[in-house]
Amino acid sequence: MHQTEQLINTLRDLSATVNEVDFKQRGYHCEVLLNQDNLREFARLMYDLKYYLVFVSAVHVEPAIDIVYQFAHFNSPSRVVARLPVDADGTVPTICDIFQGANWHERETKDFYGVVFRDHPYLKPLILPEEDVDLKPLLKAEGKVKDRSEVSWQPPEPEESREAETNEPSSETS
Fold this sequence. Notes:
This protein is of the alpha/beta class. The protein has six helices and seven strands.
């Protein structure tokens, strides 16, 4: 069984939404939609299955900022993207005690988006000066934030509908 198929079967026990996607179109094999209660269990599972953390970042969308995690497997072609909406209080659990590399990424995400990673051992500013604690350079201005559905991947339009748009009747007469 392929590594991603095994992972999907295992993730079904987490109460997370798991979708297998086309790697050629999206650049990863599986997308997982998490909640605050299953993030740490998910991270432990990824660690136990020998996945490594590629990055942690965020996307400022409505209705909440989404934290985005990407994992890859050491020994097989399997990439996983996980998304977690930030709580109304602006916090999410840390995973830096599970994946050491998350420490730097979580600090950077706090600098740029203001998200606080609960129980992080050293959530000091990483890039921005400490006196600019209120500066969140990657947050969008009010009224400019798009809905999550507007920035989510959508399947490409069928070929025939694109051809119909470009092959409209000509206004020239013979």
